Give the backbone structure.
Amino acid sequence: MQTIGRFIRHWSSSLEHAGVDAPRLSAEVLTAKALGLTRLEVLLRQQCMLESCALQKAEALLRRRGKNEPLAYILQEKEFYGLVFQISRDVLIPRPETEQVIEVAKGYFSAHKTPFVFADVCTGSGVIGITLASVLPGSCGILSDISEKALAVARQNVRRHGLENRVQCVRSDLASAFGPDSLDLLVANPPYIAEQELASLDAGVREYEPHQALFSGEKGLQAAETLMSQAQRVLKNGARLILELGLDQPARLQRGLAAGAGLWEDAAVFQDLSHRDRILAIKKTVF
Ligand code: GLN
């Protein structure tokens, strides 16, 4: 038998040697998960003995972390914009950068008086759409994904946040399943990493996150470009498209717009929390 404090010290140094990020935090959080306690409760019980059953449970979780499995997949939960979402390896782990997409959409729609319809395409766990529906009570949302497994996770999160009456989930390859002139807002964090960047990604991302949610063609722009052309059909006149993209991509797409036939107007690029251009917002021209 050993104390919780000693167990945590042992595992944080062993995770550190394995090259895992945030080893101490991982040891504390996963020990807490195995004991069914909060992290704070665990820190207050450092002198308590760890029962062998809890010890085995904690070791099983910590061994997964030792192989670089992201903490969020082991915990099966991730916080986003102050809400907690269920996740699994069928969906991308929600990133804090994506919270900026919510801010941008709120900027355009929080003063909107009449009810409006938005779609969150490539919804994954549903974080963007569910958060938008929560912060914009006048909205109805459609969450879509090409992956049935991802949609099952999104549906659970819709229920968890009690939004079944305003949010529905549908299977769709990007925006292909939506009707013409049906949306006031289309928002997406589509896959946007270039296929050749695979080797340079963190091991945790490369080995555990769904590649379908990450990669999109040679330059990473395939999904975004397809969405832009589909958006012309599914958006109402004057409706917005908001896309989270990779570095340099908003500027590239914007240059493409300038060369286009005036289909879009009011283009704006927004930065993420690290001041990098990451979000493109455009408005379908009203003819
Ligand atoms: N919309 C989800 C997110 O932002 C998933 C994105 C994706 O699968 N590309 O986390």
About this structure: The chain has two domains: 2-67, 77-284. The pocket of glutamine is lined by residues 92, 94, 98, 122-124, 127-128, 189-191, 213 (CB under 6 Å).
